[in-house]
Design goal:
five-stranded parallel β-sheet; Defensin A-like; 10 strands; binds cobalamin; 251 residues
Length: 251
């Protein structure tokens, strides 16, 4: 089967295009039987047929956790799918360093932080720390970068101060908490402050996090956004290529 030529596609379970999916959710209800019936109605409204309740648990009184298995009626027209992703060619650490040297880059100063009240640092650290992620070294290990990792809970105004002080050319911010759209507020505030200080066009501005993608990042005024499974070399490749192509160093 030539996957590239597939057009109308459904999820794959036991046989091709059988539409099999599994989903989980929690439903408050007065009792177990009501909850099960309500869960079936809900998934039917979602387009799931032949629903099988694989699991129903009551972890908290009158809150029922479900795992449902069924066949979705919807199909995807792959010709209409246009993923929005950062533009770069993925290179290894050595290739990034070689590319930087060839293009006259000595050191790009990078400042990283988790902004607002967000204390989730594991994602940012996995990109920046020398120990790295998924067998790759973090950006601190690259000859062409000087990295300042400011850690968690840095207020956007404080970060902008540091950017000026350290003459940073790239800013890497992480946002994990999305409750009440807190991430959007923090990320927007940072862009506004950078613009007010006339710094926005002088830096490469990148955000990342488990619910961040490139589309959101672009909408918020960032140069790129990276989500789950990003590795340090993705980010390093993007930074050096963006730096050279967009002429950040000339500004
Ligand atoms: C570890 C953890 C914590 C730790 C954090 C410790 C630390 N130093 O980071 C502690 C216990 C402190 C914590 C606290 C809280 N947490 Co928490 N936590 C998690 C957990 C289990 C794992 C997150 C993680 O480390 N993932 C691993 C990393 C490697 O993945 P990642 O972050 O996605 O990073 C990758 C990419 O996204 C990307 N990336 C990330 N950042 C950046 C930045 C840049 C610049 C780039 C380029 C790329 C990039 O690259 C990384 C590698 O690929 C998640 C649940 C889960 N399984 O995801 C919940 C979770 C994130 N936490 C959650 C919540 C609600 C909280 C609390 C509010 C709980 C509470 N009521 O107190 C508090 C908030 C504290 C605060 N002020 O921020 C929710 C968030 C829900 C939401 N979307 O808003 C989650 C999803 C759990 C859940 N299902 O409810 N948490």
């Amino acid at each position: 089967m030539d996957i590239e030529k597939l057009r109308f596609v459904k999820p794959y379970g036991d046989t091709f295009n059988d539409g099999i999916v599994q989903l989980s959710f929690t439903l408050p209800a007065k009792d177990r039987y009501t909850a099960i019936e309500a869960a079936k109605v809900l998934v039917s409204k979602m387009g799931i047929r032949d629903a099988k309740v694989a699991t129903v648990e009551e972890p908290l009184e009158r809150f029922f956790f479900f795992v449902i298995y069924g066949s979705v009626v919807h199909e995807i027209d792959m010709e209409q799918i246009r993923p929005i992703v950062p533009e770069y060619v993925k290179m290894s650490k050595e290739e990034v360093e070689e590319y930087a040297a060839k293009n006259g880059i000595e050191k790009i100063v990078i400042v990283g932080a988790t902004i607002g009240t967000d204390s989730h640092t594991v994602g940012l650290d996995s990109i920046l720390n020398i120990k790295g992620f998924k067998g790759e070294k973090g950006l601190e290990a690259y000859k062409c970068f000087k990295v300042y990792n400011l850690g968690p809970q840095v207020m956007p105004s404080e970060l902008v101060k540091k950017v000026k002080e350290l003459k940073a050319q790239a800013i890497l911010v992480s946002q994990t908490i999305t409750q009440k759209n807190m991430h959007l507020k923090n990320l927007t505030e940072l862009v506004d402050l950078l613009e007010a200080e006339e710094l926005r066009e002088r830096v490469i501005l990148i955000c990342g996090g488990s619910r961040i993608d490139h589309k959101i990042a672009k909408e918020l005024g960032y140069d790129a956004g990276f989500g789950p499974n990003t590795t340090p070399s993705d980010v390093a490749s993007f930074i050096v290529q963006f730096y050279v192509k967009k002429g950040v160093r000339d500004k």
